[in-house]
Amino acid sequence: MRRDMCHEIPLSRPDIGALEEQLVLQALRSGRLSIGPMVDEFEQQVAARAGCRFGVAVNSGTSGLHLAMRALNIGPGDQVITTPFSFIASSNAILFTGATPVFVDICPRTMNMDPAKVERAITPKTKAILAVETFGNPAYMDQYRAIAARQEIALIEDCCEALGTRHRERPCGSFGRVGVFGFYPNKQVTTGEGGMIVTDDERLAELCRSMRNQGRPLHWRSGQTPSGTSAPSFASWLKHERLGYNYRLSEINAALGVAQMRRLDSIIERRQQVAEQYISRLAGHRHLILPTIDPETFMSWFVFVVRLEASYTAEERERVLNGLRAHDIGCGDYFPCIHLQPFYREQFGFEPGMFPIAESLSHRTIALPFHNELSPREIDCVCQTLDLLIGRENLSKR
């Protein structure tokens, strides 16, 4: 593959159009840049799509996970079962509360936690299961839900990568006692930075509303006082009933989210088309394992991650990644295992080999460019270059 056959192809790119520009400008001109109607509408849109009664907008998915655990009274001495194969924010949020993450290994087919290992890891100290829908795949969420119910512990659904996905007709976000979405620019829907807590538990939602807003009283909702006036009194503004944080989402960010949610179906449709083109182009490649999706799952597709088959080493994968980048093709090593990150090894004494399936997969994953503006020619360029680089590695094995 000659270098001049591909122009620069980024790993991700947000899908931003005229409606987004219009609503952001509307928010800017309104004079109300925080705690206003755009946040309300965005909360209602996301909660409805998740099949939940309540949505609480926050400034990141990480903040949402933190507040969800705080609202569930998770703290020092508690254990939360989670996956080592995820973006680090999922387990960091556990540490924010003073609780301890308990990792279990994953299923190689789905890359989500093995349900049998989840159940075996439960102890009297286990307060919750934090289940991540890895790359937006909801596999086993119904099983985690059943385990949590049997053990009388909370299921927290990290659905940051799964907005719009359904499993057996149940929308992601509705499997747990609480779910959390993220809206970073590479997600299906973006607010630039932002997140959303969704739940059917009104008390939990109100606690999260209070804590995102510096611990102000529970009646706070979009600046409304109990009397219904549109602006709080100064005395109310300075009243703080609990430990809180500045985790609010601005009206500007929410306006971007409202526009994206109005276009969500078309955004998802385009992402599905891109994923289908990759699958068609790479199906049958004897050195690659493609994403495995349950036929009862409707995927909204967050990323497109392939992995090299088991004979390849981490060093060989790195050479493939570097080769893609040398051809101006964005790519990523999603995800390095959390338990082998320097802080976790130092803090908890984790060592290689403790979660062998997650470690093996993490050494062989390749996130390919994935966004709504990818053209068939660009997808073909990515796949041809990838094939060439894998072929080069195979030659070196002889």
Explain this structure:
This protein is an alpha/beta fold and 398 residues long. It folds into 2 domains: 18-262, Type I PLP-dependent aspartate aminotransferase-like (Major domain) (Aspartate Aminotransferase, domain 2, 3-Layer(aba) Sandwich), CATH 3.40.640; 264-397, Aspartate Aminotransferase, domain 1. Helices cover 39% and strands 13% of the residues. It is built from 14 helices and 13 strands. It has helices at residues 18-30, 37-49, 61-71, 89-96, 115-120, 141-151, 202-212, 234-237, 251-262, 264-282, 314-326, 342-348, 356-362, 376-397; strands at 54-58, 79-82, 100-103, 126-132, 154-158, 166-167, 170-171, 178-182, 195-199, 288-289, 297-298, 304-308, 365-368. The strands form 3 sheets. The chain has a 7-stranded mixed sheet, sandwiched between helices. A 3-stranded antiparallel sheet has the order 7-6-11, with no helix packed on it. Helix 1 packs antiparallel against helix 9 (251-262) and helix 3 (61-71) packs across helix 7. The chain is globular. It starts with 17 loop residues before the first helix and ends with a helix. Residues 222-230 have low confidence and may be disordered.
- Under CATH, the homologous superfamily of the largest domain reads Type I PLP-dependent aspartate aminotransferase-like (Major domain)
Reading side by side through the largest sheet, how are the strands ordered? Answer: 1-9-8-5-4-2-3
Radius of gyration, rounded?
A: 22 Å
Number of domains: 2
- What is the H/E order? HHEHEHEHEHEEEEEHHHHEEEHHHEH
Shape descriptor:
globular
The counted number of beta strands is: 13
| Average predicted confidence as pLDDT | 94
Major sheet summary line:
7 strands, mixed
Helix content: 25-40%
* Amino-to-carboxy terminus distance: 22 Å
Quote the beta fraction. 5-15%
Helix and strand content put the structural class at alpha/beta
Give the helix tally: 14
Q: What CATH architecture of the largest domain would you give?
A: 3-Layer(aba) Sandwich
